[in-house]
Amino acid sequence: MRKEWMNQGEAAPIGGGVSRRGFLKAGAAGFVLGFVIPGAGRFAAAAQGPAPSAPNAFLHIAPDNTVTVMVNRLEFGQGVHTALPMLIAEELDADWSHVRGELAPAGDAFKDPMMGMQMTGGSGSVAHSFVQYREIGARARAMLVAAAAQKWNVNPGQCRTANGVVFGPAGQKASYGELAEAAMKQPMPATVTLKDPKDFRFIGKPTGRIDARAKSSGHQQFGIDFKPPGAKVAVVAHPPVFSAKVAKFDASKAMAIKGVVAVFEVPVDRGGRGVAVIADGYWPAKQGRDALVIDWDTGAVAKADSAQQLKEYVALSKTPGTVAKQADISKLAGAPKKISAIYEFPYLAHAPMEPLNCVVDLQDGHCTVWAGTQFQTFDQAAAAAAAGLKPEQVTVNTMMAGGGFGRRAVPTSDYIVEAVNVAKAWRAAGHTGPVKLIWSREDDIKGGFYRPAYVHRADIGLDAKGNIVAWDHAIVGQSIITGTPFEQFMVKNGVDATSVEGMGTPYAVPLNLTVHNTKANVPVLWWRSVGSTHTGFVMETLVDEAAHAAGMDPVAYRKKLIPAEHKRHHAALELAVAKSGYGKKKLPKGHAWGVAMHESFNSVVAYVVEASISNGQPKLHRVTAGVHCNLAVNPMTVEAQVQGAALMALGTTLPGAAITLKDGIVEQQNFSDYRVARMNEMPQVEVFIVPSTDAPTGMGEPGVPPLAPAFANAVFKLTGKRLRKLPFDLATA
């Protein structure tokens, strides 16, 4: 990201110049502007050749002055439906009350400028499109001014804009809606000057979400609400063990249920086979599935067992692995103080409030998909392959989604392909019309693609003064990248970068790190904050333990270990400490402080928490966050993301927050036996942001990693027990 483009008076070039821009005529309906950023094929080009350069529209100004911004991401709670329109509105000088957002369908112009594919992930939505969306607004504004100047026969430099209106030197004025048709006939400026941050009207200001009213009133349509006329609903019986087949099935009882119209065997993810029940609605489809009699063939697939896997992982952690970082550990044996620890982390389900769903309308030569997808580009290609079509013959409409946390960004496009396969079977049987696939909550919890289970082994040596002189560390777990299109970029010398991210940095410690990438018949995937879900916990509890061994305050010890050049870490930590009252405020009896800090997705979050033990269980009362994400485009969004992340992270500490397998079968199936944090467990969370005018960094995920270790560090002060695994278990600590 070119941070210098934010400086006043500096022109922001549109990559590649005029030949790389597209401009679409919209007739009397208004003004449309779009362009393609060269370099967008950085990932796609290496894998598939140069990215297509066909442009698409990002901005529409209607005659009634309504400004509609196409949001090239998925909105599933993180606030991009407001933040991205804010960027355009800022440079456009729009009237915010007239700005609307619309989720963009799959399209080349909507690809992430830095990733080369249309996606929502890696906390990159605002960070990656910060300049892109501002330039769109600035170019649209320049063309509107040019149209007004031409109309009034004045120099464009004599005109100014404000609140969706162009003003001329002699008191003339015209709304953007009036000028839209003429503006689209103006040439696209090759360069534009972006605003200085001191002139921002929207960016950096707390702004209510565009979609808040619809969502809070129940009027917002999510993917699971959408059902086109004539659509049937499909529910699939998946194999109990991943990749298993159907030996035989009896559908007679299912077909006897009123509303059930068809039962088919269909392919499911990872080479497995399932049975789809199609009905007039969800309830008869589910009843029909429950009535199926299926004999499953599980003989040819491996059957994971969590208890056995843990034993194997612990043993493996004590053997040499693939080197990720090298450091001298010769001083470990003779160190006067030592810390040795084994950490355990279970599989985790994403468990969004809205289960997976997808509508497919398969016709001759074309397929239309409606889904709340994080991976429009992958899903469009996967749907096309499943349907026997070309990607350009598939329309993917992005629907609002009720959460995802990574589950709607699957490289295999599992539920999208499953929906297409069901639609193919429906069509092959002589039927027409759309089919809506719905996963139940149980399907979602048992359906795979979990945060991997991990084991960490750490051996740390400290000198007499408490300085860390050697740190030998091993990580054992499945790779989420191996076998995906991201492997060639994110797996180097056998090390999955996501498995080790967050280890070491920013601390100046001699870390010797090795990795064992294991295999298991359990589908794994990124989970909100990815590798930092486990590395952040390990690093921040071990640093806290080292501080205790050194006889130092944990905040002072961290400051000592963080080099001065890591100014953002220091600033976030100091802000959280200052705002919490740490070290100054007297806590209630039986309460204790806990501190942790972690950087992920280029943002730093520091937590100071206040906790106690209630009825033998840890209880979190208060959380103070210091956040350094550079410029906060919408501080309200940052606050909400940190609050939500803190609650989600709290859930990982609660008894029952684990996916376990026995005989290859996932033992959990709903919120009754897979624990998530609930409203009554929400602590008071205060969020403070370090001021900055640098280009923004990611904020969707960074609030997750430091919460659990801060909580664990507080529990140690209360009990003297070091918690080595998630979820917390004081009985075995």
Automatic annotation (TrEMBL):
Under the heading PROSITE patterns, the entry gives: TAT
Task: Please give the InterPro entries that the UniProt record associates with this protein.
Answer: Ald_Oxase/Xan_DH_a/b, AldOxase/xan_DH_MoCoBD1, AldOxase/xan_DH_MoCoBD2, AldOxase/xan_DH_Mopterin-bd_sf, N-heterocyclic_Hydroxylase, OxRdtase_Mopterin-bd_su_IorB, TAT_signal
Where does the source fall among the domains of life?
Answer: Bacteria
Q: Pfam families from the xrefs?
A: MoCoBD_1, MoCoBD_2
Ranges of residues in domain Aldehyde oxidase/xanthine dehydrogenase a/b hammerhead:
217-300
Entry protein name: Xanthine dehydrogenase family protein molybdopterin-binding subunit
Q: Which organism is it from?
A: Massilia terrae
Q: What is the lineage of its organism?
A: Bacteria, Pseudomonadati, Pseudomonadota, Betaproteobacteria, Burkholderiales
